[in-house]
Design goal:
Strand content of chain A: 15-25%
Oligomer: heterodimer
Largest sheet of chain B: 7 strands, mixed
Largest interface: A-B, 59 and 51 residues
CATH topology of the largest domain in chain B: FAD/NAD(P)-binding domain
CATH class of the largest domain in chain B: Alpha Beta
Largest sheet of chain A: 8 strands, mixed
Number of strands of chain B: 28
Number of domains of chain B: 3
Distance between the termini of chain A: 52 Å
Number of helices of chain B: 8
Number of helices of chain A: 13
Distance between the termini of chain B: 58 Å
């Protein structure tokens, strides 16, 4: 029997898991995919929002500002890429100034005191590559950029280090309410838990609806992006938003925490959950609208394009509460933007809710620092020499574009979460993320994973469930 | 700090020939640095035949061609280090490399860049759709099938008609896969004519020119691709879409010289070739750093890589001995590529360094039939050769002879051009 089962290991589930690992309780995270952070978390803008955009008094505004302020400390403790680069909300016309003023006032009301409006001449200094048509901008110094999937991995690993269990490839297929606990069925067996934290993202309505009569409905809204080579990462320093519309914050142009340039997202309500296919119209729209913000969009340096989903409900507000008719089911639903920014603050709130119910002791062994070694690519010459001497696998470079060594890949495979897919290794080490997109290193990675995990090379997958890279030995079909 | 007279980055066909060239020219202290566990580079996975017709006057497979050079390296006792990745080269020719023995620091008299090229990946094309397993560059699939003996799938579409894509269409057919089609955006193939005949026509694999893949479908595994015809601006024509079910999409959409290390040494690169801007000695703008093979410009035939690289080795040897005129004197005649000629290699020629001739390699930007390739010294037409066909997929050569320079003393430019 677990005290708490968290369903879903996206950014919300991972933050809650880490928070709960500070208590002396038994916590398990149940995730349907083969890695953490693979749903909405994987494909979004990676922006830490200042907090000017959400309606004052809303949960979105509250947790946005609270969450935003936690990032500097968390990035240090958990060692995920984060930078407070500041945001700009640009307007193209004098008549949009009142809207900028309105955003500014809203921000002040939400507790952001350092907002200001900058005019064209100052903007030229601040961001020389902004389009000539930009008239003025709201400057948001608190805005930041973060790698969302690395952040989810960091929280999950630290939670695991502190005693939280993770069950991957374990979709919650049904949940039964028993006397004082829940029985959750997964392909990897049944799990009993006193409390369920529903952090299932775009599937959080399904989890709620298994237990509650108060039905929820997630209406997934897709967003398409183009990711551009690191050589263009300096095109803008700030995250550049256009004035928001009803459908969201519009197309942004931003450096990423990893140093690439990111443009997007589009915004379209879609019928089918899990449909993350990009479209010709969507990618076209991304390029067209990004061109409004900056002087040039380096389309010949696009590395990849992708599509993410926003788990929104028609309430247009976060749901952070216990289901009224199901004591012990804590729903975290509709956590769309600014959900990533808010995640650590939402986790604090969930921690309080759980503490009220279980009155747990503190976890005496809790260590807030995530233990990882620096990547070889960031080491000095002397550090590299020492690392190779200590472990000769550091001298074996597997991914040439990102300079990733065999030692780092093996460390990722032996990390606190039991991952073994190419994408999982890529997200942890950057192997295969560079300009050749794994053309060079994929065979080497397959060999290392197969050997380290003691599986056949044909069992190695790109991203779990049925995505095997190699299907059979040559001539099997003849 | 190791001291090496001629350090060669890469032990593929270019690096091997360069090492042999440098040693033949009398340099003892040569070292090849190779990141793989074996010499020979990409030739090892090119198990088809057709290599060596120019060099050895016989048809060899890739591994056989490589073996001839590796045997020479062994016979000549040229040292090499395997599993060794060069991490950095500076403009004063200091090399940092890593292997399991530690971090190497090498001070080189001359450096020969012979790193080869890489394939353009899917992302560069920005094809809409899902991101499933089953989409590979043709060379990656070639590695899976030929070096490791595993199949990535059974129903295949190839996008791009570069040579590796054509070769892989045939190779996968041999292994029991069904190759549905080869899709080419341009109205002509980017591969060698002989490969279209021997790899597609002989096996009834359709080549769809002026077509492209407009959508990738399926998750987590590729289920199929939508293919459409394109107009003269290479934009898909609505209504021509066709869905082709497949579990594998191979991309053969271009090769990019792998010049990240060259950049670390401040080597100037050409926007057109993606390789270094070199003079007639294959020396880059950085004195004593030479470039050859596919890292300089993408070749069709390994024979020409070997020939070029051996020369780079000889030139590096001369440089180490202080025998040739340096870049600093200027004196180079600029080569101009115009009217359908995309580039030339070399980019400049110093007539004082020309013994008897210089082979100038170039590529054209389109298919040309029944045209003339002309060479102008200044404004004077020196050469005019009729050509029945010129295609972007085949590297071309004009020969500039020593006596031409004698005829035009003080000439500043040489122009290679296509004429009626």
């Amino acid at each position: 029997m677990y005290d708490v089962a968290i369903v879903g290991a996206g950014i919300i589930g991972a933050c809650v898991a880490r928070k709960l690992s500070g208590y002396a309780i038994k916590t398990v995270v149940i995730e349907k995919d083969s890695d953490v952070g693979t749903g909405c978390t994987r494909a979004n803008s990676g922006i830490v929002h200042g907090g000017y955009d959400a309606k004052p008094g809303s949960l979105k505004a509250k947790y946005n500002v609270l969450g935003q302020k936690m990032y500097d400390r968390l990035a240090k403790e958990l060692r995920f890429p984060f930078k407070r680069n500041g945001s700009l909300v640009i307007a193209f016309d004098e008549k949009d100034i009142p809207r900028l003023e309105q955003l500014k006032e809203q921000g002040v009301e939400n507790g952001l005191l350092d907002l200001r409006i900058a005019h064209k001449d100052e903007l030229k200094e601040l961001e020389p590559n902004l389009s000539e048509n930009v008239y003025a901008a709201l400057v948001v110094p608190a805005g930041g950029i973060v790698s969302p999937y690395e952040m989810a991995i960091a929280f999950a690993e630290n939670a695991a280090q502190n005693g939280v269990e993770f069950m991957l490839d374990s979709e919650a297929t049904s949940i039964d309410k028993k006397d004082g606990y829940f029985l959750i069925s997964t392909p990897k067996g049944k799990v009993e838990a006193r409390i369920i934290v529903n952090a299932a993202g775009e599937h959080s309505d399904e989890i709620n609806n298994m237990l509650s009569e108060h039905k929820l409905k997630i209406i997934p809204r897709s967003g398409e992006y183009c990711l551009i080579d690191r050589t263009e990462g300096g095109l803008v320093k700030h995250t550049v938003f256009q004035l928001p519309t009803k459908m969201g914050k519009g197309i942004l142009v931003t450096p990423t925490a990893e140093g690439n340039l990111l443009i997007g997202p589009t915004s379209a309500d879609i019928e089918e959950k899990g449909n993350t296919a990009t479209t010709m119209q969507g990618l076209g729209e991304v390029l067209e609208k990004a061109r409004l913000s900056v002087k040039r969009v380096p389309i010949n340096k696009i590395i990849t394009s992708f599509c993410g989903l926003r788990p929104r409900t028609e309430l247009d507000e976060f749901i952070i509460e216990e289901a009224k008719d199901v004591p012990g089911l804590i729903n975290l639903c509709g956590i769309e933007s600014p959900g990533l920014t808010a995640a650590p603050a939402i986790a604090e709130e969930v921690g309080r809710m759980i503490a009220e119910r279980l009155n747990p002791a503190e976890n005496k062994g809790f260590d807030p620092i995530r233990k990882i070694t620096a990547p070889f690519r960031d080491m000095t010459g002397d550090e590299r020499r020492a690392a190779i001497k200590e472990n000769p696998d550091y001298g074996h470079i597997i991914c040439r574009c990102e300079t990733v060594t065999k030692a780092e890949i093996i460390a990722a495979l032996r990390s606190p979460l039991p991952v073994r897919s190419l994408d999982a290794i890529k997200r942890r080490t950057r192997a295969g993320m560079g300009r050749c997109q794994a053309g060079f290193c994929s065979m080497r990675l397959l060999d290392i994973i197969a050997e380290e995990c003691g599986i056949s090379i044909t069992d190695v997958t790109k991203s779990g469930g049925g995505s095997n890279i190699l299907i059979e030995r040559n001539k099997t079909s003849i | 700090m190791m001291k090496i007279d001629v350090a060669i980055i890469g032990g593929g066909p270019a690096g091997l020939a360069a090492a042999i060239g440098a040693r033949r020219a009398g340099i003892q202290n040569v070292l090849i640095l190779e990141r793989e566990a074996y010499l020979g580079g990409i030739l090892n996975q090119c198990i088809h035949n057709g290599f060596g017709l120019h060099t050895f006057k016989e048809e060899l497979t890739g591994p056989e061609y490589a073996e001839r050079y590796v045997l020479q390296i062994e016979e000549m006792g040229i040292p090499y280090m395997l599993n060794t990745m060069v991490l950095n080269i500076t403009r004063d020719k200091k090399i940092t490399a890593a292997n399991s023995g530690g971090l190497l620091e090498i001070e080189a008299g001359a450096v020969i860049l012979a790193m080869g090229c890489r394939e353009r990946p899917r992302g560069a094309l920005n094809i809409p759709g899902t991101r499933p397993v089953g989409v590979y560059t043709a060379g990656t699939a070639q590695k899976y099938v030929n070096l490791d003996g595993y199949m990535p799938g059974k129903e295949v579409v190839v996008l791009g008609s570069g040579d590796i894509g054509l070769i892989m269409a045939r190779r996968l057919t041999f292994e029991g896969a069904k190759v549905r089609a080869v899709i080419e955006l341009m109205p002509y193939s980017g591969g060698l004519k002989r490969n279209i005949v021997q790899c597609l026509d002989d096996y009834g694999i359709p080549l769809k020119l002026s077509h492209t893949v407009t959508e990738i479908k399926g998750a987590p595994r590729l289920a199929g691709v939508t293919v459409a015809q394109v107009d003269e601006n290479r934009k898909p024509i609505p209504g021509t879409e066709e869905y082709i079910p497949c579990d594998t999409l191979l991309l053969s959409v271009g090769l990019i010289p792998e010049n990240e290390l060259s950049k670390s040494a401040d080597v100037l690169l050409s926007d057109i070739t993606g390789g270094a801007v070199v003079n007639e000695r294959l020396e880059t703008n950085v004195e004593g750093i030479f470039s050859c093979g596919n890292v300089l410009h993408v070749h069709d035939l390994v024979d020409f890589v070997s020939e070029e690289s051996e020369r780079a080795g000889e030139n590096a040897a001369q440089y180490v001995r202080g025998e040739h005129l340096s870049n600093k004197d200027g004196g180079g005649v600029r080569l101009l590529a115009t009217n359908g000629v995309r580039y030339t290699v070399p980019f400049t020629i110093d007539p004082r360094n020309v013994k008897d001739k210089v082979d100038v390699r170039f590529r054209v930007d389109n298919v040309y039939r029944d045209k003339y390739v002309s060479v102008y010294f200044g404004d004077e037409r020196e050469q005019r050769r009729r050509r029945m066909i010129l295609t972007p997929g085949e590297m071309e050569t004009v020969v500039i002879k020593k006596e031409m320079f004698l005829k035009y003393p003080g000439v500043k430019t040489i122009t290679v051009t296509i004429e009626e």
